[in-house]
Amino acid sequence: MWELGRIVYLGLMAGVLGTGLGGLVLTFWQRPKDHFLGFLLAFSGGIMLAVVFQDLILEALSLGGLLITLAGTLCGVFVLFLLSSPAFFQLPPGQDLVKTGVFLGIGISLHNLPEGLAIGAGYLASQELGFSLALAICLHNIPEGMAMAAPLLAGGLGRSDAVLLTVLAGIPMGIGALIGGLLQILSPAALAGTLGFAAGAMLFLVFYELLPEAQKQASRAVSTCGSILGIIVGLIFLVSL
Q1: What residues does each domain of the chain span?
Q2: Which of 159, 160, 169, 231 has the fewest CB atoms below 10 angstroms from its CB?
Q3: DSSP states of the chain as a string?
């Protein structure tokens, strides 16, 4: 029981500290506006694309093959498409940026769940592997927390509320670590499907919310440069971990 508690604590800290710290860092700046906000949203989208194709998709393919990965990805896209419908998600007029931030939080939460599973499974294999995975995941969650906080702050949400939401987005990693610790032996196919689902959800968010909103706030040149720079930074960050 004590060992399971340590696994859950490790997953929670990796998720909550990562996204929460990213949100906290952004609150020290003034609310991003206009071209800078557009650049930041596009940059965040680029980072998420790097995470999807360098991390989630590759890992899912290695675990479950093409069909399971594609099935999970399509399910992720479909579920987020349903959630984006006004029938499922409504905010007062003028709250589009807050909606973008909340949807990013959903995508990050879905992404954090399978990463929590990886932490739990890694810790059971060896404590050193579990700790190293938790540290790497915590670090690459920081820019995701910043990506989530930017539209929330720009949409008028208070700083403490924005940080709280980024912290909440990290909690599913603790849940994933708990599941990984309880199951002990994870089905590669199930994990591949989960990773594919997270990838699909994040792809939908990038192309449906982040990039269109970035081009509304800034010129095409600014948003394009932001996206490309985000991909480059994301790849460097992921490959170096």
Answers
A1: 2-240
A2: 160
A3: -HHHHHHHHHHHHHHHHHHHHHHHHHHTSPPP-HHHHHHHHHHHHHHHHHHIIIIIHHHHHHHHHHHHHHHHHHHHHHHHHHHHSTTT----TT-HHHHHHHHHHHHHHHHHHHHHHHHHHHHHH-HHHHHHHHHHHHHHHHHHHHHHHHHHHHTT--HHHHHHHHHHHHHHHHHHHHHHHHHSS--HHHHHHHHHHHHHHHHHHIIIIIHHHHHHHS-HHHHHHHHHHHHHHHHHHHHH-
